[in-house]
Amino acid sequence: MLSLEEAQSRAQDLVTAARKAGADAADAIYACNASTTVAVRLGALEDVERSEGEEIGLRVFIGQRSASISASDMNPATLATLIDRSIAMAREAPEDPYAGLAPEDRLLRKRAPSLDLVDEEEPEPAALRERALIAEEAARSIPGITNSEGGGAASGRSQVALATSHGFAGAYAATNHSTWASVLAGSGADMQRDHASHASRHLKDLDDAEAVGIRAGQRAVARLNPGKVESGVMPVIFDPRIGSSLVGHLIGGMVGPAIARRSSFLLDSLGETLFDSKITVIDDPLLLRGLRSRPFDGEGLPVERRALIEDGVLTGWLMDSASARQLGLEPTGHASRGGAGAPGAGITNVHMEAGSLSVGELMADVKRGIYVTELIGMGVNGVTGDYSRGAAGFLIENGAVGPAVSEITIAGNLKDMFRTLVPANDLMFRYAMNVPTLRVDGMTVAGG
Q1: How far apart are CA 124 and CA 119, in angstroms?
Q2: Are the CB atoms for 274 and 307 separated by under 8 Å?
């Protein structure tokens, strides 16, 4: 793995060489990931894996033609070939009036903010093994657990460097630590599975391994002996660990490329009230120790905390430079970039602000509904907003969570769901996308 300084220098050198070779403009991105993972099953070591990979991507422009190419070999001869091929490809590419680097006057010129993303502590494989064993043992200790899919622990580091030919150069690193367990309860055809996990940038922020395992075991046991549900229209309450998928669908409809292609269910909704006026959704790339925090976006633009939904209103689109040009707008610092290909648009650390009701109050008036803890399949149409997914969870009767249910389908339309959505007050920051418990009224539930 290159140091941050070496990575940034390598990207800058590649851009400089591309310009000398005939490119009108260019940018280069270097990314490296290194991780150690230890997996155990039934109390025995199952796997120890160490992986490390690096990639550098080059994008060049010849007029309004562009091409991108990437390589995992940092050998100077390989990089020289990379430049020649990318320029040759660009000369043969179709013209794109919206292609180009980010606006020069919008580039991050100040010192990149420090987001405390790097933990200097790197656990040895023996410590990872111990953590994995503790998590799995705790899960298996829950009465009713009959088998295990395993437990695990991992530690890793990633580095990113970006350079452009019009004046941006920057790099940052981040570490990650994680623990997980997955177990089964019951036997035969009645067997049920569930899991738990946690990840953090710093080891001291990671959940205790025993607590992770206990959650996995308790979740699996709670799902035993699931019943069926009579079909009907009823409230559906989403557990926080899967409720974030609703915000994910919102984000998918807000990205600039989808708007530019006119392939979003939110196409004509800019400035409209989509949610109750008390609902706000925040994207915060500058969150200290955030799982998706970053000091600049994939094109070298500064990033900032922003309300995507403010008081229920859709505030704007999430745009990279190309989609912004196509829409006649300005980029918003949401460009995301891999090694190959042009930038797209995406979010960082997102959360929906908590509501005022407790979870108990949220479901107190529900005579019959579903508390969903698992979603299955991808039955969501991003163009129309039609929503239909398999689900499992628990029956709610007279305001209380009752027996487990499975093999059900929940359906609606995302815009209708957003209008009736009510958040509880139990927001916790545990993932890259966080929501409290969510209630959505008027969904169609079909029993198995």
Answers
A1: 14
A2: no
CA angle 183, 187, 190 (to 5 degrees): 100
Rounded to an integer, what distance in angstroms lies between the CA atom of residue 404 and that of residue 376? 16
More confident residue, 143 or 190: 143
The contacts found for 242-245 with CB under 8 angstroms, 24 or more apart, are 242/372, 242/373, 242/374, 242/375, 243/435, 243/436, 243/437, 243/438, 244/350, 244/431, 244/433, 244/434, 244/435, 245/375
Question: What total number of domains does the chain contain?
Answer: 2
| Residue whose token pair is 């995406």 | 346
Phi and psi angles of residue 199, each rounded to the nearest 5 degrees, phi first: -135, 150
**448/329 same-domain check:** yes
- Clarify whether residues 135 and 281 are in a common domain: no
Residues 129 and 101 grouped into a single domain: yes
Backbone torsions φ then ψ of 301, nearest 5 degrees: -90, 150
Note the pLDDT tens digit of each residue in 186-207: 998 889 999 999 999 999 999 9
Tell me which of 176, 192, 221 is where a domain ends: 221
pLDDT in tens, 197-233: 999 999 999 999 999 999 999 999 999 999 989 999 9
Structure tokens at 173: 């690193």
Q: Residue 27: helix, strand or coil by DSSP?
A: strand
CA distance 363 to 375: 20
Measured CA distances, 333 to 123, 330, 365 (Å): 34, 9, 43
CA dist., res. 383 & res. 374, Å (int): 24
pTM beyond 0.90? yes
Candidates 250, 420, 441; CA nearest to 352 is 250
Same domain, 392 and 416: yes
Structural domain for 259, as ranges: 226-448
217 plus 230 within the same structural domain = no
The residues, any chain, with a CB within 8 Å of residue 253's CB and separated by 6 or more, are 264, 265, 266, 382, 385, 414
* Euclidean distance between CA atoms 127 and 243, whole angstroms: 33
- CA nearest to 192, candidates 144, 150, 253: 144
The candidate with the shortest Cα–Cα distance to 214, out of 144, 157, 161, 286, is 144
> Would you say residue 435 has pLDDT above 70?
yes
Q: Domain boundary at 204, 221, 238, which?
A: 221
| H/E segment holding residue 363 | helix 359-363
